[in-house]
Amino acid sequence: SLMAASLPPQTVGPGSVDPLAQLRDIHLPGPIDSWPPAPGWWILAIAAMAVVIYGLYYLYQRWMRNQYRRDALKHLGVLKTTCENEPAEYLTRFNELLKRVALSHYTREQVASLTGEAWVAFLDLTGETQEFSMGAGQVLVSGNYRPDRDISIDDLHQIGSHWIKHHRALTHDVWQSQDMEFST
């Protein structure tokens, strides 16, 4: 045919041209574009953004829920400086502050009627401490009624700030088991 006639006859032998030498070199493909990314990367990026947004939202909510703690700690610091030479006044206002903090976190039924031994037992239970019933906080039981009682403002400030920072909610079971003790 026509095409066969236009090609020179190829003979392989001495003095003949090697047909492989006439082939062109291998061409590599161009570099892979990095944009736009594959759909899997889009899904991963969206999921990562959702996790970050949820984490920030959770941290903001937690920060807002604990605003009352920051306010109470600030008030406790002011109380210490204004009543540093009046231990009886400090004790009264300290007890009122702890009661207000407790009322902001616990129900009125759980806190409002607590006084004396039941009050310090509640503070110990919710703060996971023994400092109110066995330590410096014992003055909350009868401190206002016994003016001769030695009141350490520094110790009360320390256990009060610890309780404000670390008090936890009571589970229903713990509350029911302690209900009889608090009512006495």
List the helices and strands and how they pair.
Layout: H1 2-6, H2 39-65, H3 67-82, H4 87-105, H5 108-111, H6 116-127, H7 139-142, H8 153-166, H9 172-183
Helix pairs in contact: 3-4, 3-8, 4-8
Distance between the termini: 118 Å
Name the quaternary structure.
single chain
The secondary-structure element order is HHHHHHHHH
Q: What is the tally of helical segments? A: 9
Structural class: mainly alpha
Mean pLDDT: 85
Instruction: Give the low-pLDDT segments.
Output: none
What coarse outline follows from CA principal-axis ratios? rod-shaped
The percent range for strand residues is: under 5%
Major sheet description: none
- Proportion of residues in helical segments: 55-70%
Number of strands: 0
Rg from C-alpha positions?
Answer: 40 Å
What does this structure look like?
The protein is mainly alpha-helical. It is built from nine helices and no strands. The protein starts with a helix and ends with a helix. The model has no long low-confidence stretch (mean pLDDT 85).
What's this model, at a glance?
With 184 residues, the protein is mainly α.
